[in-house]
Amino acid sequence: MLPVFIDLTLDDQAIELRSFFKSLGAEISEEKSPKGNEDDLHKIIGVCDACFREGNEAEIEGVLNAIVSMLVLIPVERAENLILAFSEKLTKAPGYKLGLVTLRVLWLLFQSLDKRCSMRYHVYYHVVQIASKVDQVRAVFKDVDSLKQQFVLCPPLNEQMQKLLRLLHEVLLASKQSELAAKVMVELLGTYTTENASQAREDAQRCIIAALADPGTFLLDPLLALKPVRFLEGELVHDLLTVFVSEKLPNYIHFYQNHKEFVHSLGLNHEQNLKKMRLLTFMQLAEGSSEMSFDTIQQELQLEPDQVEAFIIDVLKTKLVRARMDQAARKVHISSTMHRTFGRPQWQQLRDILFSWKQNMANVQEGMKSVVAVQMEMAEAKKIMT
């Protein structure tokens, strides 16, 4: 059902809203427009921000919801400019409390519009803008799949979706939702084709920088497969990504020594880069080892002797490697590690593991059949004896 917050006709609602805003000192007459409800709404929306100066959030929300109730009763093809103007007004509400109010109002407008209405995209874009101001983005965005479901009956144009994903990426990064931001950026880069991948240079570089800077992102290999990222091959930013994907700590140090200014121009912190590269290098070393001595770790990762144990603890906290530290023997016993890259060798290894598991299950099944057969024979023999 459409939300109606004042049990009046559209004409009466327009007069009441005009009177209310007039009482707040807004430049609007109390008389209804002879041009009809759309002109009334145009003038009401033009001064609706006058209520932001009032201190009663509940009253403000009620008034703004009344405007929503009028908007959704006007045919969409005649209400497009009104919806845009109203959405833009609400994004300018000052302060946290008013931000929460306008977020609820605009979210209600979004939910009230027909799911086949193209204006839902524009309202949602403004919803995200407000949500970012009040740190409530997760209230309106769960994940990429849920976002697509919101627009399944009226998908935005490709350029519109790119604009929205770009905004979501920025907002999620600002709210420290780095993992989700990375998924949004990958989705954004996936909207480019081979033909227009060259247009995504800025997005691709932003994606790489965000992934490298994020202390919780370690699986970087998938980025290399994205068309816009592949378009950057031969450039320094792509070379740097390749170092983080498959090279070891000395390779990064060599790159940094030759391109210090470039690394800093990207906004990357060298010390944080070193920390991440040490973790990635350790993962790579752990892939082929069941144990590793403190001396090896110290040498390979260029650590001081008193830094080794703290580093191992940091590794275990990431859960990238499952291991046990033996301080007495000055060793680390490794049980498993996440692969830095997942190419053909890793798929082959996974295939072998699954095949071995299948064989073991078949052996268990045959063993169970034998046990059941023996029990049945014993039961039959017991019957004969009795």
TrEMBL record:
| Compartment(s) | Cytoplasm
**PROSITE patterns on file:** PCI (PS50250)
* Protein keywords: Cytoplasm, Initiation factor, Protein biosynthesis
Q: What is its main location?
A: cytoplasm
A GO cellular-component term linked to this record: eukaryotic 43S preinitiation complex
| SMART domains named in the record | PINT
Cite the GO molecular-function annotations of the record. Answer: translation initiation factor activity
- The answer on whether this UniProt entry bears the keyword Protein biosynthesis reads yes
- The signal peptide stretch is none
Tell me which InterPro entries the record gives: COPS7/eIF3m, eIF3m, eIF3m_C_helix, PCI_dom, WH_DNA-bd_sf
| Every PCI domain range | 177-339
Entry's Gene Ontology BP terms: formation of cytoplasmic translation initiation complex
What Pfam families would the database entry show?
eIF3m_C_helix, PCI
The record's family statement is:
Belongs to the eIF-3 subunit M family.
Q: Which HAMAP family match?
A: eIF3m (MF_03012)
Subunit info here reads:
Component of the eukaryotic translation initiation factor 3 (eIF-3) complex.
What does the record give as the function of this protein?
Component of the eukaryotic translation initiation factor 3 (eIF-3) complex, which is involved in protein synthesis of a specialized repertoire of mRNAs and, together with other initiation factors, stimulates binding of mRNA and methionyl-tRNAi to the 40S ribosome. The eIF-3 complex specifically targets and initiates translation of a subset of mRNAs involved in cell proliferation.
Q: What is this protein called?
A: Eukaryotic translation initiation factor 3 subunit M
Species of provenance: Homalodisca liturata
Instruction: Give the source lineage, highest ranks first.
Output: Eukaryota, Metazoa, Ecdysozoa, Arthropoda, Hexapoda
